[in-house]
Amino acid sequence: MASSSSAGQGKENEVPRNGKEVDPAPPRFGTVNKQVSKKRPLNALELGPRKRPAQQDPLVHHGRHFGRTICAFSNVHSLLLLGLSEKDIVPETQQERREHRVYRKLLKLVPGLEERLLEANGDDDGAIFDIATHKGAASARSDDTKSLKSAVIDWITPSDGEPLRPPLARNVKVDRGIKEQLRNKTMAIPGNHWPLFVYRDEEWHDDPLKAWTGLFRSKLLVYAYKHVFTSPSSVDDDPKSTRSGNARIHGMTCVTPASVAYITTQLRFALSSASIFSRTDKETDSETFYTSVLELFEDPEEQDEVKALMAWWNRQVFPSFSNVPRTIPTNSVLSKIKERRAVLKARALNERGDD
After folding, report:
1. Backbone phi and psi for residue 194, each to the nearest 5 degrees, phi listed first
2. Which InterPro entries match (predicted)?
3. DSSP state at residue 122
């Protein structure tokens, strides 16, 4: 006589005459099987099949670099409309000149963009580009805000091992800045007032003739710039970084004035007690601060100082970059090639003269 267990198994595997499958017996508690495919059931405690990573829209990729190095706060859609409608109009005001420059840099950043917009028919490519670029710029800004929030604590901690007094939490900003006065509205810091950290060694000179001395040349700014653009490990000159920095990913080989303004704005926010980086934030007034820095960099009368500043930044971040042409040794192979080319050009000119 068959046992009850074997009888139960017989019934479990039995198929009725009408051809319909019998529902399996309820599983034991804690071992629910989820049917992933007809070939192999998946236990609830097992990992599911790995999803293929979603391919990022190239426009989002461009948007990240656009926000960091060209314009952190902009209405891309109106910028595109303005650029397309005023191609032959000479900008007159400082705002119009800035928008025109940003538009030209945007076209250079995204090859074929202008042709694509001009040829757009039913598809609203302008709106699509606006959304994608805004998404890229916003995500980059959020990533940088999050990473700088904790990194800045390491940079302002005394190098002699003494702790910060009062101590500051790495991931909580409520204790940073002059929060109480700002919260009670007894003190307000407008965006066009610049903090001391923008100066080398935090030394500000009251003498107008020394206003550029040390300006935007502080160690904190260089640390923050390297952290975002080259890699966090490059702040300590550590060559062991395994990830490509944002500069290499986007083919960036020199510092731009807008990128310095962006990093200065990010660092200013990181040192404040504000928790949300927003262009409408009245506590930090970040957009006004960013714009005031950018206006200085774009002032035609300050270009000699700005060029000297950018050269200084390139030596800090991209040591191989140089605006100075390299001299060729007189007895080198390269000098002989140049000499040969000059002889051939002179010979060709003489032959044309004879004709």
Report:
1. -100, 140
2. DUF6698
3. S
Cα distance between residue 277 and residue 355, in whole Å: 72
pLDDT tens for 48-92 read: 455 444 455 677 888 899 999 999 987 777 777 777 676 667 767
Residues 136, 110 contacting (CB under 8 angstroms):
no
Give residue-wise pLDDT tens across range 281-330: 777 888 999 999 999 999 999 999 999 999 999 999 998 765 555 677 77
Distance CA 119, CA 125 (A): 9
Residue 241, φ and ψ in degrees, nearest 5:
-65, 135
Residue 219 burial class via C-beta count within 10 angstroms: exposed 0-12, middle 13-18, buried 19 and up: middle
Q: What is the number of helices (H) and of strands (E) in the chain?
A: 13, 2
Region at 161 (left for phi over 0; alpha for psi -120 to 50; beta for the rest): left
Kindly report the number of other CB atoms within 10 A of residue 69's CB atom: 23
Distance CA 266, CA 254 (A): 19
139 closest CA partner among 59, 21, 23: 59
Q: pTM for this structure?
A: 0.69
Rounded-to-integer distance, Cα 58 and Cα 275, Å: 30
Cα–Cα distance measured from residue 346 to residue 40, given in angstroms and rounded to the nearest whole number: 79
Q: Which SS3 state, helix, strand or coil, does residue 181 take? A: helix
At residue 277's C-alpha, the angle toward residues 177 and 264, to 5°, is 70
Answer whether 150's CB lies under 8 Å from 170's CB.
yes
The tokens for 214 are: 């040390």
Using CA atoms, how far apart are residues 324 and 331, in angstroms rounded to an integer? Answer: 21
Which token pair is 175?
A: 């204790």
Contact 162, 90 (CB under 8 A): no
Alpha-carbon gap, residue 235 to 223, rounded angstroms: 5
